[in-house]
Specification:
The chain is 42% helix and 16% strand. By secondary structure, it is an alpha/beta fold. A seven-stranded mixed β-sheet has the order 8-7-3-1-11-12-13, with helices on one face. α2 (27-38) runs parallel beside α4.
Length: 650
């Protein structure tokens, strides 16, 4: 019982920090907890039951495997635990999100015990995180004439795991909390200097904004128990700088909804807003959690009699307020009309249609984007296995196609990598596309969260369609403190076993690679047509098109080899002439920004892809330019190179 004793000691240490017991991912610890549960005279039995039921991490953790095996014994009648009935054991399995839990449910559903098989099948019909090993078992059982397998497949073909979920509320009452004025960096929501604690959600949640802000939010919740708190960037954009999944997790932990009574510290459905909307990369992360991101437009530029913006002494446009969102303001979100109303629901304040397009509403209904990705695959598999026409339960992907219109570089790349589209179809910007991902990079400060996401979606190995994937060690290498020394080897082993190239070899066979993640991904990308996903906002390549992403999107790309996103619009940047010898290429970068603001007044790069048409930029120079585009809130950047330039760079 050494592990259990150590766990109790850890609990006492966490109490000093006002923290609950840390969620359990260690299978050996769960084994000891199970022994305590089976011994009715054990003084630790009550606490052990509580840890087993409410504090064990789901997915593919070794703890989840031991929990699933024990629940199987209870359901099959081999063991009796008075506090865990057969029906309760099945309920616990239903919340464990795939992997060993689905394996156990399939064992039970395909067994000869018809009563248990039907109960297990009922639970299986609600599950979406099935992988090839699981679907192959179902398919084989169906071909062998198993009626339970047929029943499950019929349910999957109708996507009942999605259609039986409750629709999102038509009206959502919110109370506002202004987190800051101007652009709000994700570093405010999840500070980079606290990266070591990101995988410990409760501990990391304590670093969001300030303790004072957290207390104020809790006070608002107490005063408004029937309302959700909406976190706001007043006169700015919410979530600039990076995707920062841990930032969304922190907002959800404090203001969102609990995903399951049996999964600790995992919340979803946060609501965030900004006067200028949500940074595109952060908005993707909000979608992962089934949250809502709103463009408030509550401040507008004041215009003169000729319709031109009035400029103040600092050279900035004068703003005037359309409506107030000061902390404590009550507002109504109408998800059907897609409008934001005042407290009484009578005065329309702003149209928020972009927050509630069909795809985003699906994310909200399903509790996050992962369930939609896996659900679509599962419905397609079932329809194909039963040899019936697919009647998708999901909204059709938006397709934008303009006859006889040419393609931007990013449109060409997405069309070349599109999955599941009609042959010879041409898609333009604004189309929602499932696309093959060629290169994936996991960053070390978010890597433990990516590992958790992979475990929670029951993934065990990298998708065979991914050309290459890398787990960096560059951020922790510069601060090789005790926390990094504890976390990094654990991360590297997980990712190495999953199939990635790792910055540090788990067995120390090769020297640590400390090159910055973007540089490594840039070096291993050789294809001008590649799509790259990286766990850092500065994921920008000189070849192909690269997108910085949250740890969840990185996990999804690793597990499925795909990414789903709208094809972005582009801004073309063309260089002419020859660069003077006394200039550094960064001078060119700053000049580009200056000319853009002079020409347009506003940042036209935000949310778009910057396509640089030079042809003669070597890879290192192109990388410098594309890296900078992250600071301009661009979605991505592409450098169009001549073949000879690309060959010289390689």
């Amino acid at each position: 019982m050494n592990l259990y004793r150590d766990y109790l000691n850890e609990i006492n240490e966490r109490k000093k920090q006002d923290l609950q017991p840390k969620p359990i991912d260690n299978g050996d610890l769960i084994k000891e907890i199970i022994l305590n549960i089976q011994d009715e005279t054990n003084i630790n039995r009550k606490d052990s039951l509580n840890f087993f039921i409410y504090n064990t991490l789901p997915g593919t953790t070794s703890a989840a495997r031991e929990k699933s095996k024990f629940l199987k014994k209870i359901i099959s009648g081999k063991i009796k635990i008075k506090e865990i009935s057969k029906s309760f054991a099945l309920e616990l399995l239903s919340h464990m999100k795939g992997g060993p839990s689905v394996e156990v449910l399939l064992d039970l559903a395909l067994s000869d015990d018809q009563s248990t098989a039907k109960d297990a099948a009922k639970i299986l019909k609600t599950q979406v995180f099935l992988y090839e090993a699981d679907t192959t078992r179902l398919k084989n059982a169906y071909h062998d004439g198993n009626l339970i397998a047929l029943d499950i497949l019929k349910s999957y073909a109708k996507a009942e795991f999605y259609t039986n979920l409750p629709d999102i509320n038509e009206e959502i009452k919110v109370v506002t909390y202004v987190a800051g004025e101007g652009d709000i960096s994700t570093d405010l929501l999840s500070p980079g200097n606290q990266a070591h604690s990101r995988s410990d959600r409760e501990l990391h949640g304590k670093c969001m904004i300030t303790e004072k802000a957290q207390a104020e939010i809790k006070k608002l919740q107490k005063e408004n128990p029937d309302k959700s708190v909406m976190l706001i960037a007043e006169k700015g954009t919410m979530g600039v700088g990076s995707s920062r999944m841990s930032g969304v997790n922190n907002v959800a932990l404090l203001t969102g909804k609990k995903t399951s009574p049996y999964i600790p510290f995992v919340n979803n459905a946060p609501i965030v807003a900004g006067t200028n909307g949500i940074s595109p990369i952060f908005l993707t992360t909000v979608g992962v959690t089934g949250g809502i991101g709103i463009d408030l437009k509550n401040w507008v530029k004041k215009l003169d009699s000729d319709g031109n913006p009035i400029i103040n002494n600092d050279g900035n446009p004068v703003l005037e307020q359309k409506y107030s969102v000061e902390t404590g303001t009550i507002l109504n979100i109408n998800t059907k009309n897609k409008k934001l109303y005042d407290e009484n629901g009578k005065e329309e304040l702003v149209d928020i249609s972009s927050s509630f397009n069909p795809q985003k509403k699906e994310f909200m209904k399903a509790g996050g984007s992962y369930a939609i990705v896996f659900g679509k695959k599962l419905q397609s598999f079932a329809s194909e296995t039963l040899n019936i026409n697919l009647k998708s339960a999901y909204a059709p992907s938006k397709e934008v196609s303009h006859k006889e219109q040419g393609l931007t570089a990013v449109e060409k790349i997405f069309n070349a990598n599109a999955v599941g589209v009609e042959p010879n179809s041409t898609l333009h910007a604004g189309s929602d596309v499932r696309a093959k991902v060629n290169i994936v990079g996991s960053q070390d400060t978010t890597g433990l969260m990516t590992a958790q996401e992979l475990e929670s979606m029951a993934a065990t190995t990298i998708s065979p369609t991914v050309d290459g994937a890398y787990q960096s060690g560059c951020h922790t290498a510069s601060v090789w403190d005790s926390k990094a020394q504890t976390n990094t080897p654990k991360l590297m082993k997980f990712m190495h076993d999953f199939g990635l190239i790792t910055g540090r070899d788990p067995k120390g066979i090769y020297h640590a690679m400390t090159d910055v993640i973007h540089k490594v991904l840039n070096d291993i990308t050789v294809d001008d047509w590649a799509i790259i996903i990286g766990g850092d906002s500065h994921t920008r390549m000189s070849k192909g098109v690269a997108f910085g992403a949250d740890s969840g999107t990185v996990a999804l790309a690793l597990a499925t080899g795909e990414v789903t996103m709208p094809i972005p619009e582009s801004v073309k940047v063309t260089f002419k002439g020859k660069m003077s010898e006394h200039l550094d290429f960064r001078d060119v970068v700053h000049a580009t920004q200056s000319q853009m603001l002079k020409q347009f007044g506003d940042n036209v790069f935000q949310g778009r892809v910057i396509e640089v048409h030079t042809g003669t930029l070597l890879a290192d120079q192109a990388f410098t330019f594309t890296d900078w585009t992250a600071e301009m809130k661009a979605k991505a950047s592409i450098c169009i190179s001549n073949d000879s330039t690309l060959i010289e760079s390689l």
